[in-house]
Amino acid sequence: MTSYQYSADFAEKMDKEDTLSSFRDAFHIPVMHGKPCIYLTGNSLGLLPKSARSFVEQEFLDWQDLGVEGHTEAKNPWLYYHHFLSKQVAAIVGAKEKEVVVMNNLTVNLHLMLVSFYRPTPTRFKIIIEGGAFPSDQYAVDSQAKFHGFDPKEAIIELLPRQGEYSLRTEDILAKIQEHQDSLALVMLGGVNYYTGQVYAMESITRAAHQAGALCGFDLAHGAGNIPVKLHDWDVDFAVWCSYKYLNSGPGGTSGVFVHEKHGNSPDIPRFAGWWGHNEKERFLMKRDFVPMEGAQGWQLSNAQIFPMAIHRASLELFEKAGMDNLRKKSILLTGYLEFVLKHIHTLGKFDFEIITPSDPEQRGCQLSVLVRSNGKNLYDYLKTQGVIVDWREPNVIRMAPVPMYTNFQDIYALGKIIESYGN
């Protein structure tokens, strides 16, 4: 276990020993007040990889020089562009290549998955989600329940922390699944809660859902690229995620989907079909009857979003070089150092706050959510004036995400000194 020190020398030493330190130079760090900012909002929007322009420029050149022929003659033929992403994406989410596909945007993909995996009956129709889930998840499950003729107030079971607590206890999640086992159709949680940063015990939750006769899926918007996941080995039925947060693939970037192979090879599973999900070998024969491709690709609707995917490829190349296991090791150290610095400052009595993210590294990624008991917005505003970009969430939480790909230990030490100066 690392013995942290609140000193410039310690932070510099940690950065010199960091085997991933060179990856920081692969990103554009925003400049504020004439110097690189301390960027702690990769959980909202990841930074721009410097290589992204060249990846996109290649597609501009092929469009310029080839026109429609770029679909087959481009350096990276557009007809098959989604294939170029599958290997790296599968490594990030712990899947087989045929179990993943990059397509659409996150909420579109979530609805496509719910079409296939929320199949209620008059007696088995309930969905378990976490209370305070990100609104897009809440809206999606509510609208799906209504679409099937159910009242969301009866169909949606929300998991809430115990009185005075901020995180969900795994035993309470499992108990709720068992409580509703006779009427439960689906468990659909965010793998990492966007507000608290809590990582849920996805393997145990999936097992409990299956034992209850339900299916289980996860929204990994805050998980993919942040924490190691093993979707295939955990027997998860489906998952979705965006690429613009930890995966650094640009605002509004394309999304990813996981469908376990036990479902992906079932052509009769209900789905909303589209041309690009049809058997690739016969797609241009324009046949009337839909024959899905095997695996997650059978859920595709339309042809690939070439330019967003090109940015995504640039980022995925960096992830392949760094390795999720290595990123996770640094993440644990870096987030632990942020926690140490914040707690040290708390002992100085500068301001009253509480870290509501679990202290157990197994239950968090690289985000700490800091509940500020008074004047939190003032602190947030002050940090911005000092070149620190963090995230404010009503009513009183500042989220800080030291992303290991480009955040260093000296950033965290500098943050501490800035917070110390608040109010002086």
Blueprint (SSEs and pairs):
Layout: H1 8-17, E1 27-28, E2 31-32, E3 35-36, E4 38-39, E5 48-49, H2 52-66, H3 70-73, H4 83-93, E6 100-103, H5 106-117, E7 126-130, H6 135-147, H7 152-155, E8 156-159, H8 170-179, E9 184-190, H9 202-211, E10 215-219, E11 238-242, E12 255-259, H10 261-264, H11 306-322, H12 324-347, E13 353-355, E14 368-372, H13 376-385, E15 388-389, E16 391-393, E17 397-400, H14 409-421
Parallel strand pairs: 4-15, 7-8, 7-9, 9-10, 10-11
Antiparallel strand pairs: 1-5, 2-3, 6-12, 11-12, 13-14, 14-17, 16-17
Helix pairs in contact: 1-14, 2-11, 4-11, 5-6, 8-9, 12-14
How would you explain this protein's 3D organization?
By secondary structure, the chain is of the alpha/beta class. It has two domains: 8-50 and 323-421, Aspartate Aminotransferase, domain 1 (Alpha-Beta Complex), CATH 3.90.1150; 81-321, Type I PLP-dependent aspartate aminotransferase-like (Major domain) (Aspartate Aminotransferase, domain 2), CATH 3.40.640.10. It has helices at residues 8-17, 52-66, 70-73, 83-93, 106-117, 135-147, 152-155, 170-179, 202-211, 261-264, 306-322, 324-347, 376-385, 409-421, and strands spanning 27-28, 31-32, 35-36, 38-39, 48-49, 100-103, 126-130, 156-159, 184-190, 215-219, 238-242, 255-259, 353-355, 368-372, 388-389, 391-393, 397-400. The chain has a seven-stranded mixed sheet with strand order 6-12-11-10-9-7-8, sandwiched between helices. Strands 13-14-17-16 form a four-stranded antiparallel sheet, covered by helices on one side.
